[in-house]
Design brief:
The structure is a single chain. The protein has about 150 residues and is mainly alpha-helical. Helices cover about 65% and strands about 10% of the residues. The chain has 7 helices and 2 strands; from the N terminus they run H-H-H-H-E-E-H-H-H. It has helices at about 1-20, 30-40, 45-55, 60-70, 90-110, 115-130, 135-145, and strands at about 75-80, 85-90. The radius of gyration is 17 Å and the shape is globular.
Length: about 150
Amino acid sequence: MQANNLADQLCEISTALEDAVAQTYAELPANCAAILLLLRRSSAPSLTHISKQICLSHNATVRLIDWLENGQLVQRMKRNGHQVQVKLTAGGMTKADELAKARRQAAENLLANLNEEQRTVLSKTFTQIMSGTDRLRSFENLASLTAGRS
């Protein structure tokens, strides 16, 4: 029962974060926001890489890239073999930075009542949770960037 409650709590935290940032990208579909944040961390990934990371079909990803390209937030680059690469435009980078800042601020707001010791324990717990995913390396890189911050 406690495990189910814990999973529900984690889902609620995720929803609270999403709700807190939704106003920042209200005009963007959530998957477009995910693409912008991914492109902010990656140097011109392929469409295939993007579709795998956001768990959408190739065709759905192409439609979202079309939408973002029409909004002048991304641009396709020359093909690298059979792969089309995508990168942020200056406007896309600004929007991605706004999204990242809003997400971080929303998370900081949720963590505001925790002292340094509680934050350290939570960080270790998050790292252990992420060890079961293929995103552990990127998670550890993020954790090292914010180590020692309150």
